[in-house]
Amino acid sequence: MFIGLDLGTSGVRALLLRADGTVADSADAATPVAHPHPGWSEQDPADWIAATRTALSELAARQSLAGVQGIGLSGQMHGATLLDETGKVLRPCLLWNDTRSHQQAARLDADPDFRAISGNIVFPGFTAPKVLWVAENEPDTFARTAKVLLPKDYLAYWLTGRYTSDMSDSAGTAWMDVGRRAWSDALLAKSGMRRDQMPALLEGTGITGALRPEIARDLGLPDTVQVVAGGGDNAASACGVGALTEGDGFVSLGTSGVLLAARDGFNPAPESAVHTFCHAIPGTWYQMGVILAATDSLNWLAKVTGTKPADLTRALGRLQAPGNLRFLPYLSGERTPHNDSTIRGAFLNLDIASEQADLTRAVIEGVSFALKDSLIALKSTGAKLDKLLAIGGGTRSRYWVELLATTLNLPIDLPERGDFGAALGAARLALCGVTGAAPSDVMTKPPVAETIDPRSDLTDSFAEAHAAFAASYPTLKALQ
């Protein structure tokens, strides 16, 4: 059996996979997030370990873990976990949605070598500008920094005592030559870092090392368990849904929104604000457009109206053409296509007659229009997508999925109910890493429960509404 550990922003998910690829069980444990100042987002790595222990203990209470051979890791990308020479954590981890380093990101991005070598814009959420912020604002901490690890790689260090990372996660640091799948000494030096402060790079199926005996005893696992490098959350999710080669892709309606396309080669287009990263399987890459507030936008509306998100969407009835009310979902800034950490959201054309259902409809339309921006950016790189698989909590709303299919003008497959995504992808990477099985044999696509086709009678009206949405960004920016 194999375990996939997915370290998300809100918690840890542990999934137990049988050798035949079927899921035996899963368990979750929450992790708190601190926001000490506007734009700051931090977590204590000790909470990751506590949540991992809790999730694995729940699994062990229901399932025998005596047959576990490997643990694969997945996790939130871009975090900066700073350790001293003894491996002690020096400060809370700066997370992917921490935007305090926007000035440092702009300075690094102004150096053409960063886009040329990494294949990406230096976004404020990336690791390099965060560590540069620490250097400039917490110099004593920076001076003591011996290693910088991504969140899931800190779990790997705790489990094995080794400093390693995988290609897909490390591609989001802005320190990597993504085409060559190696650290870039030039980019490290330009941000005040050294190669010895970086973990060793592995492919996602690479073996990090054996579980430390004391950890194995404590967690009730065999001491022969091998820890596999795994992947960043989106790459691992792609492994979980079988998006491995050119033409495969998915859309994720989670806290953030992701439109991902697997690529057979390295085709960067940083000017589009598309992310171009190594895949978690060897010799492949993927590209994605990212919006920072997808279901987060609906959750925000639910909070301010005192209504559950599911109740908001349930009240909408049948899909209808967009109205005049428009929502720009930039509640936490935006990545694709704007690369703007300071832009904030807005309602336009509010009317005295606007009701809760109108606000709900506008919010999910705005998120869907932002994802269409990502689709346009992806297509500009040469990515070809004829249909998408939809995952994430937002897909429980049929209205939203039908709206998204109509907005993107692409069929959207809904998988059958079950476990898939990052934790499953991590477990599949562990299976491949330990047994040598081919990813194409293990990382199959989930059975499709239903395909939602675009509403041909509404595609023109949604295209017109998207054009108006896209034209609103520069106007909103000018009002800041």
From TrEMBL:
The record marks D6 as: Important for activity. The active site is at D233 (proton acceptor). CDD domains: ASKHA_NBD_FGGY_EcXK-like. Gene3D superfamilies: 3.30.420.40. Belongs to the FGGY kinase family. This is Xylulose kinase. Catalyzes the phosphorylation of D-xylulose to D-xylulose 5-phosphate. InterPro entries: ATPase_NBD, Carb_kinase_FGGY, Carb_kinase_FGGY_CS, FGGY_C, FGGY_Carb_Kinase, FGGY_N, Xylulokinase. GO terms for molecular function: D-xylulokinase activity. Pfam families: FGGY_C, FGGY_N. It comes from Seohaeicola nanhaiensis. The lineage of its organism: Bacteria, Pseudomonadati, Pseudomonadota, Alphaproteobacteria, Rhodobacterales. It catalyses: D-xylulose + ATP = D-xylulose 5-phosphate + ADP + H(+). Residues 250-431 form the Carbohydrate kinase FGGY C-terminal domain. Its EC number is 2.7.1.17. Substrate binds at M77, H78. Residues 1-240 form the Carbohydrate kinase FGGY N-terminal domain. Keywords: ATP-binding, Carbohydrate metabolism, Kinase, Nucleotide-binding, Transferase, Xylose metabolism. The gene is xylB.
